[in-house]
Each structure stands twice: as C-alpha cells, then as structure tokens.
C-alpha cells in the first residue's frame, strides 16, 4: 500500500465502514432481523390475497353446504338481539345502561365468525374480491349464486329464531317488551336512514373482515369492537335487524310489507354499498396501486 492509500484508509470515518442497514438503524444479528420481520404487520397485498382465497373457497362450495351454514348463521345472529334484550331487561334504569346492553350485540357475530358460518354481510367483502381480481361472467354468476343462497338461508334462520323465541314462552313480559322495543327502535328510522345507516354497517363489517386475518390473537377484540360500534351508532344490519324487526312483526307490531319495504330493501342495499362498492373496491384499488 502506498502512502496515499494508507492515508485514505486511516482518514475514513466510521460511517464509511457501516452497511446500509446499520446507517438506517442499529446493527442487528441475523436472528434479530428475522424477529423484526416477524413483528411487521402484513402488507395490504397479503391481507387481500388471504381474503380472496377464502372467497374462492366459498364460491366453490355446494348449494347444500352454503344453505345449511347460512341457516345456522341466521339462527346464531338471533343471539345478538337476545343478549341485548336480556341486558336491557335486567339493567333497567341503571346509568349508562345503553352502553352496557350494547355489549350483547357482538355475541351473534362472535358465534358466526369463529364457527365459520355463512353470513351475508361478510360475503359482500370476501366473495367480491375474486370477482374484482379476475372479472368475468362465470365469477359474477358464482357470486350471485352464493349471495342468493346465503341471504335466503340467513333470513330463514333469522325468522325461525324470532318466531321460536316469541312462541316458546321462554321469557317474562318484561323481556318480551324489551325485545319488542328493539324492533320498534329499528323501525323508527326512515327508509333513507335505513339505507345510509346500512352503508356504515356494511363498511364496518367489511373492515372487520379485512382486519381479522391480521389480528391473530386479537381476533375476538376486533370482532367485539367493530360490532359494538354498530350497536352504539344504531347502524342497520340486514340479518340482525331482520331478527329484531321480525320479532316485532310476529308480535303484531308491524306488517311483513313494512319489514320488506321500510327496513329490508333499503338496509340490504346499504350493506352491499358499504361492504362491496366502498370498502372492497377501495381495498382492491389500494393493492392494485401498490403493484403498479
């Protein structure tokens, strides 16, 4: 080494000898770098692909499998109304009773999601991503088939639950009045409010579906917080709301026409707009934008 080379080597600053990784932060071992990567939240594309593959699986299921699972989900969602009604009945005039009774609302969602039952509003997100990724008529036909079977199965389950709870004489008059009151409260919305509140409910359910794969051990927390917000906001959900309003119908407090026109159609459209047309479309566009 000549004198000039020796002088350059000795005059070099510590930064000149650092790797790019070390300049950006602390020097880590290979194992520590692996730990850092493990703790990173999944990329949006990973979440998108996880949910898309779930959607592909659902689209490929047989009609009987979808139907029975949807029926079970409709029945399970009845427990959201029942839990809230029972809490309302026993809390009475306790200060902050509404905040406490609304904690009953997530119960049906917990059962449905953890048991992997078919819920229509989940499928406004899950089953739509395969169509957005590879749009064609076959995928559209499969989506409409799934939606139809699941929606009908959910409604039958919801109606059976509401009718059974009313006629099996399980609860006292105070509980009956609490359950009727929930349905009356829902029907107090105008059709436009049913639609707009349905958009927010659909959006929140789609958000929950997007978050659950990344939540891991916090899945229950994500489900409870998301659906609790729906209850607090009085947002309209087509399946839970169907249990609530059909209980009122079977009690003689409203007609089937009122249920279908005043509540059912506006809420259904709102849930689809919020889940599919807003959240699913934006999430898909986000991932496509990252790939561009």
What features would you describe in this structure?
With 292 residues, the chain is mainly alpha-helical. The chain is built from 15 helices and no strands. Helix 4 (44-59) crosses helix 12, helix 5 (63-91) crosses helix 10 (137-167) and helix 12 (191-215) runs antiparallel to helix 13 (219-233). It is globular and about 60 Å long. The model is unreliable at 4-23 (pLDDT under 50).
Largest sheet: none
Low-confidence stretches: 4-23
β-sheet strand percentage:
under 5%
- Tally of helical segments: 15
Q: How many runs of DSSP E, i.e. beta strands?
A: 0
User: What structural class is derived from the secondary structure elements?
Assistant: mainly alpha
The backbone outline, from C-alpha atoms, is globular
Radius of gyration computed on alpha carbons: 25 Å
What sequence of helices (H) and strands (E) makes up the elements?
A: HHHHHHHHHHHHHHH
Overall pLDDT score: 84
Distance between the termini: 50 Å
Helix content: over 70%
Brief description of this entry?
The protein is an all-alpha fold and 292 residues long. The protein contains 15 helices and no strands.
């Amino acid at each position: 080494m000549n004198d000039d080379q020796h002088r350059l080597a000795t005059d070099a600053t510590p930064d000149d000898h650092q790797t790019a990784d070390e300049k950006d932060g602390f020097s880590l071992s290979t194992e520590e770098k692996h730990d850092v990567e493990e703790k990173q939240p999944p990329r949006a594309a990973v979440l998108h692909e996880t949910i898309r593959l779930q959607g592909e699986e659902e689209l490929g299921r047989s009609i009987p499998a979808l139907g029975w699972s949807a029926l079970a989900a409709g029945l399970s969602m009845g427990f959201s109304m029942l839990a809230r009604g029972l809490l309302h009945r026993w809390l009475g005039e306790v200060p902050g009773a509404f905040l406490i009774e609304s904690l009953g609302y997530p119960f049906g969602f917990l059962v449905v999601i953890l048991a992997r039952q078919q819920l229509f509003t989940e499928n406004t997100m899950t089953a739509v991503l395969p169509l957005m990724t590879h749009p064609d008529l076959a995928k559209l036909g499969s989506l409409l088939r799934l939606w139809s079977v699941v929606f009908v199965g959910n409604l039958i389950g919801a109606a059976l639950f509401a009718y059974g709870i009313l006629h099996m004489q399980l609860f006292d008059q105070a509980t009956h009045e609490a359950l009727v009151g929930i349905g009356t409260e829902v029907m107090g919305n105008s059709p436009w409010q049913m639609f707009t509140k349905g958009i927010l409910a659909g959006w929140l359910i789609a958000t929950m579906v997007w978050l659950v794969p990344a939540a891991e051990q916090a899945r229950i927390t994500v489900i409870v917080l998301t659906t609790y917000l729906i209850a607090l906001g009085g947002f309209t959900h087509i399946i839970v709301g169907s249990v609530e309003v059909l209980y009122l119908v079977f009690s003689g407090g409203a007609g089937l026409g009122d249920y279908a026109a005043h509540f059912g159609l506006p809420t259904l459209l709102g849930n689809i707009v919020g889940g599919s047309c807003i959240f699913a479309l934006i999430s898909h566009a986000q991932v496509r934008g990252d790939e561009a």
